[in-house]
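Quick one:
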Amino acid sequence: MFVGHLPKICTNNSTKLCFPSNSSNDQLEVSLPLYLETLYLFGNLLNGSISTWLYSLPSLKLLDLSMNQFTGSINEFHSCSLETLYLDQNRLHGHIPRSLFQQVNLGVLDLSSNSLSGVVEFDQFSKLNKSSCRIREFPNSLLFLDVSNNQLQGLVPIPPPSLIIFSMSTNQLTGNIPSQICNASALEVLDLSNNRLNGSLPRCLGNFSENLSVLDLRNNRLQGMIPIFAKVKSLSILNFNDNQLEGPLPQSLLTCKKLEVLDVGNNKINGSFPNWLESLPELQVLILRSNRFYGPVGDPTARLPFQKLRIMDLSNNDFTGHLPRKYFESLSAMMESHAGEFGYMEVEHSYYYTKSVMVDMKGVYTKLEKIPKIFVFIDLSRNQFLGEIPNLIGMLKSLHGLNFSHNELSGSIPPSLRNLSNLEWLDLSSNQLVGVIPEQLADLTSLEFLKLSHNKLVGPIPNGKQFNTFENDSYIGNSGLCGFPLSRTCNNEQEQPPSPTNVQQAEDDGFDWKFVWMGYISGLVIGLSIGYIFLSSGKFDHWFSQWAVRRMWYKLNARLRGRRN
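Output:
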């Protein structure tokens, strides 16, 4: 791993590079690599400004300085030979140099995760001098553009028709999404999320590219209705979360047979439950939370609905009737064991775009930057569901989270919940549940968060194992409960805190306290399962994963060059 500054041009000879030697007074002089075509220096600890000689290499085609600590601005390039440029994940600032738009053969440009500002305009080509690079006509070679996670402003630029991957997410863009964006018929990924865009969605958005795989417009200020989707048959991710969209969910989404993630949470979408979604064979993530849906859920028309569904979030709507028992019976992916499935849910462009969602985990609304393959949960909270919790919930053995809180559920807590051996959080609060807390729930050794408050539960709280870790707020509002940790004792006996023997027993049963504390200290969703943390912890693991991603990006680059040729 390299540390420090790039070598600079020697003061006494402009054709030489000077490297510091072991002697403090001497320097090693090396000829300037004028014919250098490829330079990989990604994933090091290089800092300072990017040396000026790099901007003057006449034959440079591929330059990768990503994942370093470079500062300063990006200077103008003096040649027009660049085909691939990676400067992402540094500390660069200032405007994007105009010379980048003069690169005749530039196919891949990644400037993401810096502090760049200003406005991106593809029509800057028209403002440049063609003769500077002997351009007879304006180039149309750009295939990959990622300038996400910067401070860019202005309107959404109209991309060239050649563009395949286009990301300007997490900037400060304003205004409408221009309808001319639909002229980029080659687009496979369009990510304009986390900006300040407003206005309605272009009606052509659901028809302009048969190759479109990812459409991510979440966290903006978009209004109006969702357009009809007729030609985007390759769509696998549709994320409109956190906007102000209204009207019904268009049934034309049924044409998107490859759809894996549908996230329209936190909008004003209305209508009855879209049970036609059950016919989408690849759907894994369904998020309808915080909209204006109403009526009963669970009258399936398909023989085996939602078989691949892993995340089901219908919370904070106006759904009524009984819990969707018939859907629970067919959630095959939630019944299977995913214990050996490491890694994250991926799409075709996983080397560039990762699936991420906002979920309510253990009482905290949290963004999962990546969705672990083993992550399975159901959230039907804050609706008007009534009736009993069906015993067959115990069949969904892969569940990590279950939230039925703030409904009108009655009856007792089913003992079959003991079968949910992977369950990390359970929230049944603010219902009308009666009876005792089943002793069998003490067998849930993965349970880190429990909320049974504001029901009509009675009797002793189970003792030992996980139940020795929960505090009063897990049980408040149940006047008939007694036992630790409540001050009310059972059978007029003085209640004692858990003994060291019980704590040791919990550890012997496979529960390790350090995992819980690691979760609290890291602030990562109060400890999603230490298995998730293992997937992304450690400096070496981080570097290695970034190296693997970079290898995939180079494969993409080769693919793009092949397509252009």
